[in-house]
Amino acid sequence: MPYLIVREPGQVAVSVLLHEGLSVGRQAPSDLLLVYQQVSRQHARFEQDESGWGVRDLGSSNGLFFNGIRTERAQLREGDVLQIGPAQLTFTEHERAEIAHAQPSLAPETLELHRADRRLGLLVEVTRAIGAMGDPEELLGRMLDAVLGVLGCDRALAALREGDEDAPLRQVLRTRAGATVEGEVVLSRPILDALLVRREAVLLRGGREPGASSPPMEGASRSGMGTPLESGRRVLGFLYVDHWNQNAPFGSEDLDFLSALGRLTAAALERAEQHQRALVMAEATGQSPHTGPLAELIGQSPLLQRLKTQIVKFAQASGTNMLIHGESGTGKELVARALHAASARAERPFVAVNCAAIPETMIEGELFGYVQGAFMGAQRDKRGRFALAHRGTLFLDEIGDLSPMAQAKVLRVLQEGEVLPLGAEQPSLVDVRVIAATHKDLRKEAAEGRFREDLFFRLNVGDIAVPPLRERSEDLPLLAAAFLEPAALNLGKRLLGFSPAALAALHAYPWPGNVRELRNEVERAAIQAEGAVIELDDLSPAVSRAALSPSSLTTGMSLAARFAALDPMERSLVEEALVAARGNVAEAARLLGITRIMMVRRVDRFGLRSRDG
Ligand SMILES: Nc1ncnc2c1ncn2[C@@H]1O[C@H](COP(=O)(O)OP(=O)(O)OP(=O)(O)O)[C@@H](O)[C@H]1O
After folding, report:
1. 270 and 297 co-located in one domain
2. pLDDT tens-place string over residues 585-597
3. Is residue 292 within 6 Å of ligand 1 at its C-beta?
């Protein structure tokens, strides 16, 4: 029977039984849905005639690729590969595995059956992990490694739902060292339905690897089994293991064991996810400012709280590309790091690239890598940043400065989920979440032809705006204090904070360079400071002058801060009057319209010098 093996980036491969007229597209009524922007609503159709099976493009925008070549129509032979958007469809006549035995998945009491077994150790390990509430991916990885040894199988797979019932299945796969198997598990729709819809544990028989003409040993057959990962009414995914075995296919006892393991694993996963969610939510609502993935983002203003809530929301969609925009120095990179740290990719690399800092001639090599001899000076293979960020996050800062050529290549990687290093012949699959940042209005750049519109839309799936510091001046005292502490420590000084006048000046200044400029200002003032607090005079002239502007009284500061802001203004006027009166206090008082006594008090208070004293 003819099948299509459907491979989507980062997901469990699925085999689909081919039937006359089977259609592929982004939307119903297509039979096979591939929900990607570069897939047309009705993209391609499979047909059978006397010469066999064929496929036809239904007028798609991005085309149907047959063994790498764009085509309108093609006749299909064993192993032919079709590319539709980022998905690969392989045509095969090979029989797939089928369900030999299915049973409702087991209640935890079944554990009793397996006491005194080596397997008990594994169950204990998983039970312990439930208490430890570790990272879900790490938990699964450890558990699958143990499963390979204990069950003596070749491959162990955990497939996890990323969201609702129709969401794709993220895979975590472990292969036994030296096993004669492909590093990929292909399952059919009926098997997936048994596991995920009917929630049955299944024993499988038969099935060959795609492209493998015979089993690796004489007389061997594929033996596999799977069990749903159920927690209450939710199906989180499933566990699957298999091996080539001549004498000992898996039996129902093995299936009981896997079912019990599935129950425990699901409980551990649920608990770990709840724990992570609780941490992140506590962080977002400011209940726990010192721990968790958002801890580095200092601030309590409503705008910053909103930003944190958005980060939490987008972190959960860890496959979604993101665009962060905001003025320079607002904390875009910090936001990108928080998005990564709060996501399921947190244990994987976060790789940052500043597109504006790398010369145009080198950017492609940096991003995609190259092979030895690809160009003069390429003395050895170099892995690109995309490959380094595999299964993690790639942060492309200043994406608006990327050359058109590099933009086209980044787009290709996002569309197809694979990178082609310079000079290489074979692309390799990468699973990377791209978070791009820019201080430019990228929508406008795209509309005016300076940035690729298709790349903009690819990146803008999730977007976050980081507000400038002047719009959240409530955060200023917290930020200034947070920067002062390490600066003082480095200098070996004991600095307790800011004088009211200095704080008023910080409030009054508009901070065109945002938080970065504030950090620099505080570090500079810490060097200048001679007393226990930062005084107005310790600040740079541009900032201390800001305290004199009338706007310094209307920037939403507290009453005390606004009152303190009067001080530097008053001092400046007193100084000016003294200069105009050549140091004569009585004359200066007359110029200001105050009494001589009032003038003398002010000269003393501000520590100024007059001709009289
Ligand atoms: N909310 C914040 N809490 C603490 N530190 C912050 C915050 N926002 C920014 N910073 C600090 O300000 C500096 C600049 O931040 P970052 O590099 O993330 O800004 P950016 O917007 O990416 O800048 P650019 O556009 O120039 O690349 C860093 O030292 C960062 O730690």
Report:
1. no
2. 899 999 888 888 8
3. no
Does ligand 1 come within 6 angstroms of the Cβ of 468? no
**In the 8-state DSSP scheme, what is residue 11?**
B
Distance 485 CA to ligand 1 centre (A): 17
Contact 87, 108 (CB under 8 A): no
Q: Name the domain boundary from 277, 310, 325.
A: 277
Q: Could you tell me if 154 and 266 lie in one domain?
A: yes
Is the same domain home to 79 and 145? no
| Stated length of the chain | 613
562 Cβ closer than 6 Å to some ligand 1 atom: no
Model confidence at 178, pLDDT cuts 50, 70, 90, reads low
Ligand 1 centroid – CA 330 distance (Å)? 5
**Based on the structure, what is the number of domains in the chain?**
4
- pTM, two decimals, is 0.52
Q: Are strands 433-438 and 533-534 parallel, antiparallel or unpaired?
A: unpaired
Same domain as 453, residue 344: yes
- Supply the residue whose CA is at minimum distance from atom 13 of ligand 1: 516
CATH at 450: 3.40.50.300
Mutate to test the pocket of ligand 1, among 355, 396, 515 (most ligand atoms within 8 A of CB): 515
Q: Report the alpha-carbon distance of residue 590 to residue 506 in Å, rounded.
A: 32
What range does the domain containing 222 cover? 98-277
Query: Nearest C-alpha to atom 30 of ligand 1 is from which residue?
Result: 331
70 plus 102 within the same structural domain: no
The neighbour count for residue 610, using CB atoms within 10 Å, is 18
Contacts of 65 (CB under 8 A, 6+ apart): 71, 82, 83, 84
**Angle, nearest 10°, between helix axes 596-605 and 559-580?**
110
* 440 CB within 6 A, ligand 1: no
